[in-house]
Structure formats: C-alpha cells, structure tokens
Amino acid sequence: MTSELPPGLRAAIDRELSGASRRDLADRTAATTAAYRSGRGSSAVIKGRDDALAYALARLPATYAASAWVFGEALDRAPGFEPKTLLDAGCGPGGGSWAAAEAWPSLERIVWFDASAPFLDLAKRLAADAPEAIRTAETTRGDLTAGAFATADLVMASYALAEIAAPAQADLVNRLWAACDGVLALIEPGTPAGYARILAARDVLIAAGAQIVAPCPHAAACPLVAPDWCHFSVRLPRSRDHRLAKGADVPFEDEKFAYLLAARPALAAQAASARILARPKAGKPGLTFKLCGAEGVETRFVPKRDKPAHAVARRLDWGEAWP
Question: What kind of fold does domain 7-263 have according to CATH?
Fold first, then answer.
C-alpha cells in the first residue's frame, strides 16, 4: 500500500518551508540521520526550530505512513473500537496523532507528551488548520522514563522506545499499558534492533495480561530465529523537497517498521489466524507465502489451478492477515 500525508499536514509543512534554506535543511537532515545510525537519540541533534523542521521534512512522512498502516490493522482487528482520547507518548512533531485522527474521527482529546520543546512547538504550528482534536491537543513536556501518564482509550508510542535506554524500556511499556484503557500501539524501526525492542515489549505486555492483537496470531514465543526478524513495509511518495533533503532521486521510499498492537481483554478484538511475513513469491505453478500461524512459521502454496483461491491470494501482500 502507499500512504500519503493528509492535505492539511502537507500544506502546513509547506508553510513552514517557505523561505527556508534547502541546503541548510539537507545538512541538518544528514546530521540527524547520522545520529540515529550511530545509536544516538533525537535529543542529540534536535536543538531548535530548524532541526525540528528538517526532521519533519525527512522523517515525518515515513513515521506517519507507518502509523497509518498500523492503525489500519487496528481497525480490522477491533472494528468496534471508537476511541475518544489519545495519549501520543514521544509524539515528536505529531505525525502519529494525525494518522490516529484519520483512522478514528471519534477522537475528541489528544495529549502530546515529549521531552523536546522544538518538536512540541512544531507540532502545534503544524496543527493550526488541523481537525479539532489535533488543533486543540494538550502538550506536556516531560521525560518518558519518569512519572505516570494520563489515561486514554488509545495509547501510542511511535519510534519512541529507541530513544530510551534499554534498562528503562520495560518500565516505560508497563506505564504506557497502565495508562491504556483500550488499545496500545507500539511502532519501532523495522531493523533487528527495533524488532528486539518490540519483542521485549510483547513479553512485558503478555505478563501484564494484555491481549496481543497484531501482528502476532498467538501469544506463544515468537517462532522466528535469527537472522530472521519480524518487520513490515509501507511505501510513501516523496515530495520534491523531501527528495532534496535526503539527497534522493527516487520519487518514493519504503519505510520498514516493526509494531505491536495490544488490547484490554474486555475489548472486542480478534487476532488474525495467520500473518504474511514476507512478500509472496510468484511462480508459474502459483504463489508461495511465508506465514506465522498458531503452530509457528509455515509455508503456504496457492496453485494457479485453484482459480478462486488464487484470485484471492493475488491480492494479498506482506504484512496482511491471512484470510
């Protein structure tokens, strides 16, 4: 699937870019990318307004796209869930909240929590003409590793665990779960390290009594064995400014991410019977799928001669639930 920024958010970013030096933004983007690749968090490089804008230009489209993909899965797994409140923990410039508001028009109150003043300031500027729930979002500046959070129907932490020292991550997950009255969404980069953080969070949540809704079709130990890891991909278009900031020529990018959806047991949510773990392999005889199911990892072959089944299988892709 391809995911684009909402027109209101795209227009808000364009307003922020008016008069900004593209060369300076590209330099700041490169510095941010280098920091992340070396294991440093955003606090090491997001020092002011221009740094936050460079991040939003280069990374917000991808983090929004991943959040939108995950929330689409939440809609499928818990179709009756209509949250009114959202806690966006480690919100950055607010892209995840925009994705949540697109998925659930029922949202009435949003709380943004982040340690970065430049991110929170940018999130408010980008929300100037947003839907009401985003426009009126409450901002709280604070340390994710300290204190309690306000409770909400929907709690999300998108690309936030990577910002926290490993010993403090389990406690953060427990506190996010304590604040969650309905669904908790965790999203991390689709790297082995990001998957490891999601896997550790999964253990914490299962121990706390959470229902794992996605991507896992079960609550047993993950059956994948290194060097394999569970991650997914969403394609997003790149604007001209986006390409300039990243020094890229291709008009799109594929954002790899790992995620987890957990729900309160009282919520009507249903995990998939199986999950497609990789892109289907097409051959003359038919399609081959790598699946994670209740019995672990398996390979499923759908022959072309089974025309009804093959017609369904042709529409399936990496990350989707097996019908």
Answer: Rossmann fold (3.40.50)
